Amino acid sequence: MAKTVVYVTYKRGVLDPQGEAVRGALASLGFQGVRGVRVGKYIELDLANGRPEEQRAEVEKMCRQLLANPVLEDFRIEISPSAPPE
Amino acid sequence: MAKTVVYVTYKRGVLDPQGEAVRGALASLGFQGVRGVRVGKYIELDLANGRPEEQRAEVEKMCRQLLANPVLEDFRIEISPSAPPE
User: Fold this and answer.
1) Which Enzyme Commission number(s) are on file for it (chains A, B) (predicted)?
2) At A14, which CATH number?
């Protein structure tokens, strides 16, 4: 099983309303010293085995077509080595 | 500046409807070989400097009180080394 993780975050400079809401909520709960919060997505994909370089290209296509909004968001892909075939 | 990242994911065995929706959407876009998708949160906290062990305890409290639902979700905390004081 190849585990692939995609991180989707707002680009720097894009307002993150969910992060701002969390920052405000933390402050109202008494947590001092939180200067900023950004909330993104953490997406785990369980892919059928394949060559890592092909998988990366495929996952990049998924990000551009569905998982991220390239206008507002950045994405980062991490592919862990597949387990050896059994 | 200390950057702290919190990953919030559904516990194994808990149905993830957003992940299921993404899996279905990827399949309908023609992406074969996606056997499962889990969607979690990736939260970046910008904390005022402090001792790492105190920060970790503080962030664990934030997770239990606000950032995660301990009944359904797991969380993982990563604290990067703070920049040296200027």
Assistant:
1) 6.3.5.3
2) 3.30.1280.10
Q: For tokens 């890592």, what's the residue?
A: A52
**Please, are residues A39 and B41 in contact by the beta-carbon 8 Å criterion?**
yes
How many residue pairs bridge chain A and chain B with CB atoms within 8 Å of each other? 97
Interface-testing mutation among A37, A60, A75, with chain B (most B C-beta atoms within 10 A): A37
Pairwise CB contact (< 8 Å): A38 & B44: yes
Q: Which residues in chain B touch residue A52, judged by CB atoms under 8 angstroms apart?
A: none
In a domain, B86, yes or no: no
Q: What total of structural domains would you count in chain B?
A: 1
Distance from CA of A56 to the nearest CA of B (A): 13
B51-70 per-residue burial string, b: 16 or more CB within 10 A, e: under 16: eeeebeebbeebbeeebbee
Residues 6+ apart with CB under 8 A from B71: none
**pLDDT tens by residue, A24-43:** 999 999 998 899 999 999 99
Disruptive mutation site among A20, A45, A65 for chain B (greatest number of B CBs within 10 Å)? A45
